[in-house]
Every structure is written in C-alpha cells, then in structure tokens.
Write a structure and sequence with these properties.
By secondary structure, the chain is an alpha+beta fold. The chain is built from 13 helices and 31 strands. 27% of the residues lie in helices and 28% in strands. The two termini are 39 Å apart. It binds guanosine-5',3'-tetraphosphate. Guanosine-5',3'-tetraphosphate (G4P) binds next to helix 2.
Length: 525
Amino acid sequence: MTLEQEIERRRTFGIIAHPDAGKTTLTEKLLLFGGAIQTAGAVKSNKIDMGTRSDWMDIEKQRGISVATSVMGFEYKDLKINILDTPGHEDFAEDTYRTLTAVDSVIMVIDCVKGVERQTEKLMEVCRMRNTPVICFINKLDREGRDAFELLDEIEEKLAIKVRPMSWPIGMGKTLRGVFNIYENNLNLYEPNKQKRVDEVVEIQGVEDPNLSDHLPDSAIETLREEIELVNGVYDEFDSSAYLSGEMAPVFFGSAVNNFGIRELLDCFTEIAPQPHSRETEEREILPTENKFSGFIFKIHANMDPKHRNRIAFVRVCSGKFQRGSNYFNVRQNKNFRFSNATAFMAQQKETVEEAFPGDIVGLYDTGNLKIGDTLSEGEKGIYKGIPSFSPELFREVINLDAMKSKQLEKGLNQLMDEGVAQLFTFEMGSRKVVGTVGALQFEVLQYRLLNEYGANAKFESVNIYKACWISGDDDKVDAFVKDKYRHIAKDKEGKLVFMAETKAWLQMVQENFPDVQFHFISEF
Ligand code: G4P
C-alpha cells in the first residue's frame, strides 16, 4: 500500500464526555461492532472512583488500566480506526486537552437525562480552539430523558455549534420503540435488554412509507412524521464542509449499553470523519503525505513500579512513515535518538510495531529524555504547535522539607512537569516555586512520587493565587509592567513570563490599568 493509501484509510478520534455519560460503554460497543472484541465487559472503565476508600494508589491502579486502553486501534470496512481514550476524572482534564491535540475528530457522548454538563462544555471549548469536527451521540435513550428538541437546543446554545440530527428517537424510556435513521432512511427497532450486536434494520422508503405501520403503532408513526417534518424545517441539511470545519455537529441517538444506535453511528462516522490532515509547525505546514517522518508527543505515562522506572511516550505520527529502530531527531534537544522499542495498540493488545503511518499512535519507551510537546522528525527543525498549557485552577507553593535533598526535589519536579502532571511557576523574586494543577489529586500524586521516586520530601502549601496569566505586548510595555508588578511575576517552565493574579477583581483592575499588555489564559497565543 502506498503512503497515500495508508493515510486515506486512517481515522483517529477521541470520545469525550462528562463522567458517567457512557464513554467507556460506547468505546466498548464501537469495538464490538467493529469486530475488534467479541464480548462485552472487556473494556475497563478508567473512571476514578472518588469514594471514601479511594486513595492515590487506587488511582494508580486505575491509571494502569487507562494505559492499556489509551489507544485502541481496529480495522473496520478497510479502515484503520484509532480511538484515543481520554481520562474521565476532571482532575486529569489537562491530559484530556492534550489528547485532543492528537485526534482528527471527536465523538461527544451526552446523557439524554442530564443534557450538556459542565465538563462537556469545557471539552467543547478545547475542540473549538482547533476546529475539531464533532459528532454527538445522545445516549441512554432507554431512560426517561429530556425532549429531543430541547436537548438539541441545549447543545446549540451551550456548545455554540449548529446541530443536524442524523437519526431520530421514536419514543424514549419505557416508550422507546426505535430510531429512524434520517441519514440512511431506514428504521432500527429497539428490543430492550438486547445484549448482542444487531445489524438488522427495516428498509423503508422514508417516513411516509405505508409499511411503517407493520412495525409501529399509528400514534408513534404520526408523531414521527410530525417530528421529522419539523427536523427538516428547523435544521440545515447535513453539510460535510461545515462538519469538517467544526461548525456543524451531526447528532445520533441511541443506548450504548443496549447496543442500540451504535452501528449507524459507526457507519456514518466511517463515511464522514476526516482522515489525517496537514499540521502546523512553528516553521511551516507539514502534509501527512510528505515522505519524511514527523510526529509529536502528547502524553507520557510513567511506570510506577520502582523496579521498572521507564516511561511510555505517546507519539502521534503526522507525516511519512515511522520505522522502528530508526534514528529520529528530537527538535527541542537538537539531538538524534534511536527508537528500537516501539509499541502499537491494537484493540486492547500492545504489540511491537515495525512501522506506523500518519494518524497512528506509537508508544516509545523512554528513560527520561522525552517531554510532552516534543517534536520528532528526520531532521526538520520546526516544533509542532498546538499543545498549549491552560491556566491551572489550583496553586500551591512547594516547600522543601529536607534541605539535603534540594537537587532531588528539583530533578523530580522537572521530570514530573515534563510528564504533564502539573505546571511549575518560579517567581522572579526569591525563586519561590508554585505548582499549578487542575485538581487537588495531582498534589497527592506529586508528593507521593517525589518521595518514592526521587527521595525528595516536599509539601504543598496554599497560596493566594487566582490565575496565572501569560503576558505579551511591546517590549517596553511588558518591561514596565514587570517592573511595577515584580512581586507577582513568575516564569513558566519554558521561561515565559506569567502574571500571578491574586483575585479576579484585582486582575480586572490590573488589566484596565495596563491596556497595552495582553493577558492570556493559555500558554500559546
Ligand atoms: P463514562 O465512561 O462516561 O464515565 O461512563 P460509563 O460508560 O462507565 O457509563 C456510566 C454508567 O452508565 C454505567 O452504569 C453504564 O452501564 C451506564 N450506561 C451506559 N450506557 C447506557 C445506556 O444506554 N442506558 C443506560 N440506562 N445506562 C447506560 P454504572 O451503574 O455506573 O456501571 P455498570 O455497573 O452498569 O457497569
């Protein structure tokens, strides 16, 4: 197969959802329908149970599961499909944001009872930054959910995206009879508690087909006809280019746990979802079809076993062909490395990979050289853009409890930041170190790992910081600002200047007083 053919047949996507909406279930069902697994129950949830018993070692066990299901590749209809899993727990949201930089599209799962939830909104913001195409799957139709039109309104409003229903529910909860596939113009009847995969559909000629009465009661047919008329009147036709530019989300309805509405979703996905496309580096746009390999690291998973202190770096292949055993150039370090130990992910098996193509994810064993955001190439020097850091939600100061171990603490902090566990800000004044995270769990993770892996004893003390804002502007304006606010200026790990604002009100005041300085909540601007 040529490189072009390999690229054309790849579909790399992520499934995102608010915890509990059914992401794990849907992932499993897609694998089941795709023929990659034979039985339900094979995909373990990577959800972190925050019950009273769960401490951070429990989380680690969960992380063990999540590495196994980090990437699931399978073949379906001559396509190579790669599903990238995203951590469900919101304390690991930053991990999810980074994973989204490695996909070409997403499927967003929404619970029909709960509608659009907070985490869904945040994830959508990240998709919008890169205009990632989104398909919505409204799940749990077997429950008494909200009205379908109301749900669609909520998606349009809260997620700021146009929707186009591709299927339509016939009833819901106890009265669920099936879905009408607008896209395929056929009918999929619902049988409750079906545990096997079903492929049969009722071929009909649209909602006006008189044969509908063989399958549905008159009242259901009447409602269906009215609703489909309304759907066609209210929503624009499906427009592939609007979908591909992230402006229109096709919507499917189903019940993942009941294997219902999955085949339609998968079949439509394979038809409309994008293949790998070009990506920007700091220097130029690189096409996937270019002969030379390039890719970037979006995730690093550390092995917690002290006897095997290796890490797996996940590389998204962006151009050319990756070949095991080759020397590749790490742009940040300006150095070549040989990668003889490379892993691919098929269904739930990890296997050694000889070659990989754009869209594929390869796991590289690493002993501490690689870092999130690194670009690997065959000599080209541009770094792939698009792995930004978001201003953290929680901030705490690092207090070294063992003065003899400051070197170890420094090394540990640096390496853990490279893995993306948290963000480090070093104040210009007094070299105070403040760590920022999305959730409180990360502080537990840091403290434990610093002690156990680096022998450094540190604690994390609360500090009065509301936001970290990256600043930019004309040099003289930024200099004047830094001089004025020097007690609140820190540098991030890349050496970029950051203003550490103490309160929301104060930040607003400062912004008004320094109109020539730009304040950013994302490190890439
Ligand atoms: P997540 O990864 O998004 O967090 O969600 P997950 O798939 O783990 O699903 C969350 C819960 O919702 C699970 O129940 C799952 O069985 C249920 N679920 C998924 N799809 C459907 C559906 O179509 N209808 C209904 N009624 N429920 C659905 P659980 O009780 O937390 O776990 P389990 O014991 O059932 O596995």
